[in-house]
Design brief:
By secondary structure, the chain is α/β, with parallel strands linked by helices. Helix content is about 55%, strand content about 20%. Helix 3 packs parallel to helix 4. The relative contact order is 0.13.
Length: about 150
């Protein structure tokens, strides 16, 4: 009887240990994004979008891209996406770049995708300019889906 209890406890302990390890890895993985260089982050985000069903995903050339890093399409809707891998909240300038780039590339939707969160002025500008804000929480949910 004691052996059965010990074996049961060991099995439960193994399951709990495995679950904690998976949880630690999933928490650690998004923070690795914080260490990426800008272009690496753009290509990472492009691949993430592909895996989430976006089509015709294209990373724009570095200079003269009018603030847009990724062009993509999903369900007939075209997107112009500005990527920002920052160590602080993202401000209004990124929203303005997505707005200008959306029009320059003649896309239906403009978005800013970041590993951080947005300042309140950026949120207000995005509402007025109709720019999607995809923050760290949204990025982490995309990572978990794929």
């Amino acid at each position: 009887m004691y052996i059965a209890i010990i074996v049961s406890a060991a099995v439960v302990g193994a399951f709990i240990g495995a679950a904690l390890l998976r949880r630690r890895r999933s928490r650690r993985y998004p923070s690795d994004i914080d260490l990426m260089e800008g272009h690496d982050f753009e290509y990472y985000c492009a691949e993430l979008l592909r895996r989430r069903g976006f089509q015709e995903v294209e990373v724009t050339k570095g200079s003269g891209d009018y603030g847009i890093d990724i062009l993509a399409e999903k369900d007939g809707v075209t997107y112009a996406i500005q990527c920002k891998c920052y160590s602080a909240p993202v401000g209004v300038k990124a929203v303005q770049e997505a707005y200008a780039g959306r029009d320059y590339y003649d896309r239906m939707v403009g978005a800013v995708l970041t590993n951080q969160y947005f300042t309140q002025p950026a949120v207000e500008a995005a509402k007025k300019l109709k720019i999607l804000l995809w923050d760290r929480g949204y990025l982490e949910s995309m990572i978990k889906e794929v």
